[in-house]
Specification:
Pfam families: MTHFR (PF02219), S-methyl_trans (PF02574). The strands form 4 sheets. This protein has an 8-stranded parallel beta sheet with strand order 1-10-7-6-5-4-3-2. β3, α7 and β4 form a beta-alpha-beta unit. The protein has 2 domains: about 290 residues, TIM Barrel (Alpha-Beta Barrel), CATH 3.20.20.330; about 240 residues, TIM Barrel. It is an alpha/beta fold and about 625 residues long. α15 packs parallel to α24. It is elongated, with a radius of gyration of 30 Å. The mean pLDDT is about 90. It has 24 helices and 20 strands.
């Protein structure tokens, strides 16, 4: 049948009967033994028989719209698997396999396009690059002769509109546009589902719908609020419920019969096309196809008006802490790092907090299981600090121990309690610490975490969802000057500042010339810099720090200076050297970051008193 006639038939079928689409490609492949995190698109080359089998299983179940294995067939995604040079081959094979599976049966091949997902730890893709990636994928899909382009699982409306624009520019006429909406009816980019559908139709989408985010009931709930006019075409690909992780596998609870029982409810909400997404398999499609026999879509439908109850107006969270950056405009600021204890005994820690405050410190910075060594939560320690002092807590937050969900939850909690000063860190690998069997998460790196914090300050989470309030974090970042690749570290710092960091804390410095170098390179950046000092206690301590602690470098002449000293004489020499470094720092900077060695807060107290007296003399 000529293509024009086939496509005219598709329009007729959508208007005259409920058309059934296929189910999930990825989760079905996982159930067939494909390991997670494998490049699904690559299977079109290495295991074409498996991809063909999946399509055939869905076709035999009753699917008429077959989504080809091209959802993430773009150069950016494939580059993570070093497959970007095989993009054309993958697209060609994927469309060919879908066509082969369909054969001469009634049905239509959809070239699928997902958003160009950027991993949380990676930098964003600029608009020009994104445009190029979409254009390349769209061109290849059209060249291979797919019947329609199926944009799916988009959460950002502007991104989807860009894809539709590029497709129209390439001459594509049959465009299906699906968004992944939150259950309250909004995209992560902030638009309501009603607004999104309207703009998508204006942009040339023949059929609009939802997929990828909601199960059956949530999808029905979303569609209730959508008005349908006679010329509108609607679609939905609900998930098979929420996933459950059991014995290393993700399972979905919604049964095939449950899908079949709800087909008529989807028809009542105006659907022309119904398929399945995450967790659905051929048995789900078969149940829907059987229930859809003889069912005709309705032409018009009014939107159901639903009252919405807001939890509260948008608000700025309470500012409990004064800003260290404001204080810097008045006087030099002294920050002391003092780790929380490794045990449940908090007495000595709190004793040290009081002594450090009395010695004149402005802030106490609390590490987040530094060097992957287990300690009392710095969040809890900061609450104790507030209870016994007026020191400003500066909380280190590392990406190692929490996934993206956990990081946001903790940061939102910090925001509600009025904590403001956050040092964003990637974090030392878990295997290097005292629990080597623990795993490192690293959903984000330090730059990604800074972006996340900046988003919370704007009142949105990582998914772009409105938080009904804004945090007021003053975001800090780390800088390692103890490297031969100093210029590279400066460029990395510039990326952190561009992401939203407002102050810098350096690794401890043990070289007078390096202090001047930091000043000369970082002064043009116009950002407050807390230069780190760590007193050396003895020769063994110096050798350990230099050789075994990442980011620390102690010149040989300094280590040699400690070699013949022991006991208290060694400590006195280390403290004196730290004092000399501190004076040099204060001749260039207005901020010092003093790192307390081995919880010896008495040493930090001595240095604070000495440096403050010199500064005020």
């Amino acid at each position: 049948m000529p293509w024009e006639k086939r496509m005219a038939t598709l329009i007729d079928r959508l208007n005259e009967s409920l058309l059934i689409g296929d189910g999930a490609l990825g989760t079905y492949l996982y159930s067939l033994g494909v390991p997670r995190n494998y490049c699904i698109e690559e299977l079109s080359l290495s295991q074409p028989y498996l991809i063909e089998k999946v399509h055939k299983d869905y076709i035999e179940a009753g699917a008429k719209i077959i989504r080809a294995n091209t959802a993430e067939a773009n150069a950016y995604h494939l580059s993570f698997f070093k497959l970007e040079k095989k993009l054309k081959e993958i697209v060609s094979s994927s469309i060919g396999l879908a066509k082969k599976a369909l054969g001469f049966k009634e049905g239509w091949i959809a070239g699928t396009i997902n958003p160009i997902w950027v991993r949380p730890a990676d930098p964003p893709i600029d608009l020009s690059t994104r445009r190029t990636l979409y254009e390349e994928q769209i061109s290849l899909l059209l060249e291979e002769g797919c019947d329609l382009l199926f944009f799916e699982t988009f959460t950002d409306l502007s991104d989807l509109l860009l894809g539709l624009e590029l497709a129209r520019n390439k001459g594509a006429q049959f465009l299906f546009a699906f968004v992944a909406s939150f259950e309250e009816g909004k995209l992560s980019s902030g638009q309501s589902l009603k607004e999104a559908f309207s703009k998508l139709r204006e942009a040339g989408a023949l059929l609009v719908g939802i997929n990828g985010a909601s199960g059956v009931q949530a999808s029905l709930h979303l569609l209730e609020e959508i008005e349908k006019k006679e010329t509108d075409l609607l679609g939905a690909y609900p998930n098979a419920g929420k996933p459950e992780f059991y014995e290393g596998k993700l399972t979905y609870s919604a049964s095939p019969s449950y899908f079949g029982q709800n087909v008529l409810k989807f028809v009542e909400e105006g659907l022309n096309l119904l398929g399945g997404d995450y967790g659905t398999e051929p048995v789900h499609v078969a149940a829907m196809a059987q229930a859809a026999v003889g069912v005709k879509p309705i032409k018009r439908k009014l939107a159901k008006i639903r009252l919405r109850y807001e939890v509260g107006e948008k608000e700025t969270l309470p500012q409990v802490e004064p800003s260290l950056l404001d204080r810097l405009n008045i006087k030099p600021v002294f920050m002391v790092e003092y780790d929380s204890p490794k045990t449940l005994s908090m007495g000595k820690f709190l004793e040290g907090v009081k002594a450090i405050e009395k010695a004149g410190a402005d802030a106490l910075t609390l590490a987040d299981n530094s060097l992957a060594i287990l300690r009392v939560s710095n969040f809890a320690a900061a609450i104790h600090v507030r209870r016994v002092s007026k020191l400003i807590p500066v909380l280190h937050v590392a990406c190692r121990d929490r996934n993206l969900l956990g990081l946001q939850s903790e940061l939102m909690g910090l925001g509600t309690l009025g904590f403001r000063h956050i040092l964003a860190l990637t974090g030392d690998p878990a295997k290097s610490g005292d629990h080597p069997g623990a795993t490192s998460v690293y959903d984000l790196n330090s730059v990604g975490l800074i972006r996340l914090l900046a988003g919370l300050n704007r009142g949105v989470n990582a998914a772009g969802k409105d938080l009904k309030g804004k945090t007021d974090f003053i975001i800090g970042c780390a800088f390692n000057p103890n490297t031969v690749q100093f210029d590279a570290q400066v460029r990395k710092l510039e990326a952190k500042l561009a992401a939203g960091a407002r102050f810098v804390m350096t690794q401890p410095v043990f070289d007078f010339e390096l202090i001047k170098k930091i000043f000369n390179y970082l002064k043009p950046l116009g950002v407050p810099v807390f230069v780190g000092i760590m007193p050396i206690l003895n020769y063994r301590n110096a050798e350990f720090l230099h050789n075994e602690v990442p980011g620390i470098s102690i010149p040989e002449k300094i280590r040699s200076r400690m070699k013949d000293l022991e006991g208290e004489k060694a400590t006195e020499a280390g403290v004196e050297f730290a004092r000399e470094l501190g004076e040099e720092i204060l001749s260039h900077f207005r901020a010092i970051y003093l790192i307390t060695p081995f919880l010896r807060y008495d040493i930090s107290v001595r240095l604070l008193e000495s440096l403050q007296s010199k500064k005020t003399a």
